[in-house]
Fold:
Amino acid sequence: MSTPVKFPAGELAKRLKNITILGSLSDAQLRALAKWTEVVSVESGETVVKEGDSGSALHLILQGSADVRQGGRNLAHLGEGQFFGEMSLFDDLPRSADVVAAEPSKIAVLQKWEFWGYAASQPNVVLNILAEMSRRLRAANQVPGD
Structure:
């Protein structure tokens, strides 16, 4: 069972900057967002998210690692600084895979309602995120050789 733990807020803000959709936020915005983010400790073998469950949070691995599994097979191994579930901040679609801690880990969890509670008071945060998502979509849709 995950247990809330303390993690330095300044360090958490620096780590949040590495999440692609949050990368364009200012340091002050990231420090404020860090206050809305919970850090939990999970044991090796613990399921962090379960395939088919409603997605409601973005997760960032601060220490440790996790395996992404679908239908019993490993799809990916995620390490420190990697994240998953970012799109669940924007939609209610079910999780497409299990994510299981591969070792004792510390994971930052930003719940959708916490994110939108913060973003409601900071409209420029949403604009920065939408601009980043637009850049990512344009890059994904670019035809080779253009």
